[in-house]
Design goal:
- The protein is an alpha/beta fold and 408 residues long.
- Helix content is 37%, strand content 14%.
- It has helices at residues 2-15, 41-44, 100-114, 130-142, 157-165, 178-193, 204-221, 238-250, 266-269, 303-309, 324-336, 342-357, 390-397, and strands at residues 23-26, 31-34, 72-74, 85-90, 122-126, 146-152, 169-173, 196-197, 229-232, 255-261, 316-320, 363-368.
- It has a 6-stranded mixed beta sheet with strand order 3-4-12-9-10-11, sandwiched between helices.
- Helix 7 (204-221) packs across helix 8.
- The protein starts with a helix and ends in an 11-residue tail after the last helix.
- Mean pLDDT is 88; it is low at 1-43.
- The protein binds pyridoxal-5'-phosphate.
- The site of pyridoxal-5'-phosphate has 20 residues, from helix 4 and helix 8.
- Residues 63-370 form the Tryptophan synthase beta chain-like PALP domain.
């Protein structure tokens, strides 16, 4: 939270300096970042729907009541091509800071309601992390559930620790087994121990929650204007399938842009995934290669995604080139005060590229699935030092007291 607070403070400082452009040293870029003056678009763009100080509303019964209703935020022309408008749908406003809170809650509620999840039963799921973080929390909310997560080795350490912090047990599967390995392990554990398997890659409860919440939220929030493009990537394909289906039905002129890593061009390859009778993948997809966009594109085409693709929901497929996702995620942090993960950077890159080709006046919405704080140990933060750099040391030495010299 400190990181986020610092970035927001930067923006606040700019706003509190009415006559001059505020200048602030950006440790990450080693350069002076200039913020616009108070007369700029930055200030004009402040439009909280509830006034600060009004309060949130009556106290909630538990944290799961805060899932969904995430805000959309306008991207400035520091990133958005001139004459176009891009709104970021900020899913890190969910209580566990990702879009997967919606699905985790939906699966558990649906299974409780139809009786397939019994009191006291353990919940098990294969996940790149965000679903597990959500499940860990909502199991705790249910008070009588416990949670076991299988997760492949390459996903960030932060995810493992967060899930354990939330009371889940995390079974790490070998890197060589890829996504299909962690899915297979979860199935095996469920069968052996009689646990409830979430089946996030196959269950209709996944896309349905996005049909019932994510899609309507976007259309409702933009009801006074047409939006021309909606841009998303896919992990399970739940967001794409559910929100995409809703948007196609309620805003038929909106074009849906689906993105995938250039290195793992599964949809682009035109090859399908062989399935087991329960819809889970029977083997690894031949077009898969390891890629840095955690949470996106496992080494198979999930059934939830395939069902969406079968309804011709998307109008265009965009490949994300190497490095573009991390660069855009860093640019969002430095230019917009928006701290999102690598998949958020990838989606925004696809949105910006789409905007460049779109007619003047076009409005785009890009999904930002999670928070950047979940990536401290990944390439997203590889260029961010923990120790003071030369510029910072120079500032420290510019006054006499409390100088922490580096130990050589
Ligand atoms: C970081 C991140 N981005 C995007 C996604 C994709 O969401 P969906 O599973 O709805 O396709 C996920 C899903 O795990 C994720 O963890």
């Amino acid at each position: 939270m400190k990181l986020l607070a610092a970035t927001l403070f930067r923006g606040a400082l700019a706003l509190s300096a009415p006559s001059t452009a505020a200048a602030f040293l950006s440790p990450a870029s080693q350069s002076l970042v200039k913020f616009p003056s108070a007369t700029s678009d930055l200030r004009k763009s402040i439009s909280c729907h509830a006034k600060r100080g009004e309060g949130y509303g009556p106290p909630l019964n538990n944290i799961s009541e805060t899932v969904g209703n995430t805000p959309m935020v306008k991207i400035s022309d520091r990133i958005c091509p001139k004459g176009r408008t891009i709104y970021a749908k900020c899913e890190f406003f969910n209580p566990l800071s990702s879009v997967k809170d919606r699905l985790a809650l939906s699966i558990i509620e649906a299974a409780e309601n139809d009786g397939s999840l019994k009191p006291g039963q353990t919940v098990v799921e294969a996940t790149s992390g965000n679903t597990g973080i959500g499940s860990g929390c909502y199991d705790v909310c249910s008070a009588w559930l416990s949670c076991v997560i299988t997760m492949a080795e390459p996903f960030s350490i932060e995810r493992r620790k967060l899930m354990r912090m939330l009371g889940a047990k995390v079974i790490v599967t070998p890197k060589a087994g890829k996504g299909t390995g962690m899915v297979e392990k979860a199935k095996e554990l469920a069968e052996k121990h009689g646990w409830f398997l979430c089946h996030q890659f196959e269950t209709d409860a996944n896309w349905k929650i996005h049909y019932e919440t994510t899609g309507p939220e976007i259309c409702n929030d933009l009801k006074d204007m047409n939006f021309d493009y909606w841009v998303t990537g896919y992990g399970t394909g739940g967001t794409f399938h559910g929100a995409g289906k809703y948007i196609k039905e309620h805003s038929p002129d909106t074009k849906i842009i689906l993105a995938e890593p250039g290195a793992a061009n599964l949809i682009g390859s035109g090859l399908s995934t062989d399935r087991n009778p329960d819809g889970s993948p029977a083997c690894s997809h031949p077009a898969f290669n390891p890629h840095p966009i955690q949470g996106w594109t496992p080494d198979f085409i999930p059934l939830v995604l395939e069902k969406g693709l079968g309804q011709s929901i998307h109008d265009e497929l965009v490949d994300i080139p190497d490095g573009a996702a991390v660069q855009m995620s860093q640019a969002l942090a430095r230019n917009e005060g928006i701290l999102t993960g690598i998949s958020g950077g990838a989606t925004m890159w696809a949105a910006v590229e789409t905007a460049k080709k779109a007619p003047e006046g076009s409005v785009l919405v890009a999904m930002l699935p999670d928070t950047g704080e979940r990536y401290l140990s990944t390439p997203l933060f590889a260029s961010i030092e923990a120790d003071m750099n030369e510029d910072e040391l120079e500032i420290a030495r510019s006054t006499p007291s409390f100088i922490l010299e580096p130990v050589s």
